[in-house]
Amino acid sequence: MKDLTQGPIHTHLLRMAAPIAIGMLVQTLYYMVDLYFVAQLGDHALAGVSAGGNVMFLIMALTQMLSVGAVTLISHAVGRKDQADANLAFNQTLLLSVLCGLLTLFGCYGLADYYFSAVGADAETHAAGISYLFWFAPGLALQFALVGMSGALRGTGIVKPTMLVQMLTVLVNIVLAPVLIAGWGTGKALGVAGAGLASSLAVIVGVMVLAWYFLRLEHYVSIDRQLWRPDFAIWKRLLNVGLPAGGEFACMFVFMAVIYSVISHFGAAAQAGFGVGSRVMQAIFLPAMAIAFAVAPIAGQNFGARNAARVRETIRKALYLEAALMFALTLLCQIKPAALVGVFSSEAAVITVGAQFLQIISWNFVGSGVIFACSGMFQALGNTWPALISMATRLLTFALPALWLSRQPGFEIVHIWYLSVATVGLQMLTSLLLLRSELGKRLAPLDAQRA
């Protein structure tokens, strides 16, 4: 356990954000490696895997439900010096992760055909997406255990073990992807099914190693089967924080599904270009998301310790860091968008769509960074409903106009990208106003106690 209630806030932010960013980067390499080898199979395979990868947003919604709840409850318990409550929250998180994993398998195998019928540009894209998702489903199910254990460590201020495990899983995926997708050394290429299988096997390795860490090396919170009896009071506390946070990612899943649907008329190359561009954007966002992920345990521990001044200092410094970082990344996408997309595809049509997407969408990077920081603070304060309200505002102002635009004469893909930029600006303002209100309500009692 690392005490984040003492020492400089900016030092804690940078020291936690660095390994979190590295871990998230290597985790993203899962999809980058898959995209690289799948791109060699053609536009239909690339579009199918990209659409199948969008299911990850839905799984992230559910995993964040557990992770955010665990980080908040455990960080508050650490701030209060209540180890027993932290350990109970951790073990109940693991129990919920098992249940959610089983539901994920049911959803992937039972509903995949309906999903790809809605978003696939054609029959070949549909078939490729289903083949990929069926083999990736076990890995998606095990993400719950992986994220639950990682969230517990982050709540205690520990992030390096998670980073190392993520690096290991990526190495496993990098080794397996060319073997299973392209048939290197075996002569038996599995294509898109191999991409899903490689990722699933890598996640299995990660879960096993992280479980070993908890059984042998972790002492502040530990796996205790006696604490696995359902405790509905803890579930309520976890879900009260986690459900709205999960809802944020569920909105993102819908957001991405709407985009795939409205651009499907432009063909597989357009969907593939957007798929590559959006994955590049996600990789670019990783440092900013890492800062937001660091905000939650730092401010959470200080909130649990009832230190309002350090909570306010955390969000101020996080906002400065986010704005500066995202401005630099905006410049990168304005100058070299085609080069970023060209790493994953040599198809001119794919590169054109992906580069155009990055160049336009990068104008909302600073706003996105501010939104990330606000979400991290909502988690720290134990009320994530404002973050969900903010995301829902964006979804409503984007989805309905996008569907309307797609039916108008002269509709072009760029209209969707410009609409997205405008709605992110609205979401940023909404987040800042809601955060100001939440800080006033949550911290005023702490200020009164210190007065």
Helix content: over 70%
Mean pLDDT: 84
H/E element order: HHHHHHHHHHHHHHH
Secondary structure category: mainly alpha
As a percent range, the share of strand residues is under 5%
What is the β-strand count?
Answer: 0
Largest sheet: none
Count of DSSP H/I helices: 15
Radius of gyration: 21 Å
Unreliable stretches (pLDDT < 50, length at least 5) are none
In angstroms, what separates the terminal alpha carbons?
Answer: 30 Å
Number of domains: 1
Shape: globular
Describe this structure as you would to a colleague.
The chain has 451 residues and is mainly α. It has one domain (9-450). The chain is built from 15 helices and no strands. The model has no long low-confidence stretch (mean pLDDT 84).
What topology does this entry show?
Elements: H1 9-39, H2 43-53, H3 55-80, H4 83-119, H5 123-155, H6 160-181, H7 192-216, H8 232-262, H9 268-304, H10 308-335, H11 337-342, H12 348-361, H13 365-381, H14 385-405, H15 413-450
